[in-house]
DNA sequence: GTACTTGTACGAGCAGAGTCGAACATAGCA
DNA sequence: TGCTATGTTCGACTCTGCTCGTACAAGTAC
């Protein structure tokens, strides 16, 4: 079957607005390890999270509940932390909310092509 | 530090010579799943195996002992089977030996860019 | 035949990941 | 003050994966 071509949204790197909370602890770009990143992406739920962030990031980042995932909160905490500690996403604390976005620039720098693989993925076709 | 550029060997797709043993059971190309492949590649030892196969495949394929991995035989069986069942490598039985090579064409078709990520990887830099 | 080599199969031990419920912390608001 | 919403932390359970030793199977060479 033909795969619906997913166009990657244009990345407009905007300077951080003043008052942006600092990111939660995360590996620096030079600390990213391919095997760790691949391990973080080897889960369908996390693949869904990252892909949704990549395709629908009209706002800067999104809180946890925005994803509409039918899992307990503690499970989501687990998966978002796995993605953050692997260096795939960056999380910031906005009051009560913890918002996430993909570290596209860092991933493109260290592992070019990886982000496009996630975008091309679909839960059904693998 | 600057990363040593790894050039990808030219792939000469040769027709199978007569008398080639059939491949061991493996997923068809349309059955490949990104999360499974990423999971198979999220192990440093398996990443080493695949990368070495990609960079030094002067012969068609290689037996298990060619890799010079300092692990018990049963461990190697485990990892090679994981790679084969994920669809990353193809294995054929030549008498006593079981030789492996990477399914480059299939991976390039389904997950373009993934093979290059493995080639660019190095055990130290991640 | 025997010995050697290549590799599998099986099982045990161990560690880590995924799942979830329950309790807790905090910000905002009435 | 109390309620609600967001999300964490903890512990427990289960499941899988990694590691390895041992035993076994099948070609190859003598």
UniProtKB/TrEMBL annotation, chains A, B:
It comes from the Bacteria. Residues 36-116 form the HTH arsR-type domain. InterPro entries: HTH_ArsR_DNA-bd_dom, WH-like_DNA-bd_sf, WH_DNA-bd_sf. Residues 1-23 are annotated as: Disordered. This is Helix-turn-helix transcriptional regulator. It comes from Actinoallomurus vinaceus.
């Amino acid at each position: 079957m033909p795969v619906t071509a997913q166009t990657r949204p244009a990345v407009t790197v905007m300077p951080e607005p003043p008052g942006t909370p600092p990111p939660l602890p995360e590996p620096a770009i030079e600390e990213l390890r391919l095997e760790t990143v691949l391990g973080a992406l080897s889960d369908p739920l996390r693949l869904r999270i990252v892909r949704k962030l990549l395709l629908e990031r009209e706002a800067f980042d999104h809180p946890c509940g925005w994803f509409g995932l039918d899992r307990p909160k503690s499970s989501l905490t687990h998966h978002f932390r796995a993605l953050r500690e692997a260096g795939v996403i960056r999380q910031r604390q906005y009051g009560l909310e913890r918002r996430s976005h993909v570290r596209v620039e860092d991933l493109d720098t260290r592992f070019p092509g990886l982000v496009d693989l996630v975008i091309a993925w679909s839960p059904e076709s693998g």
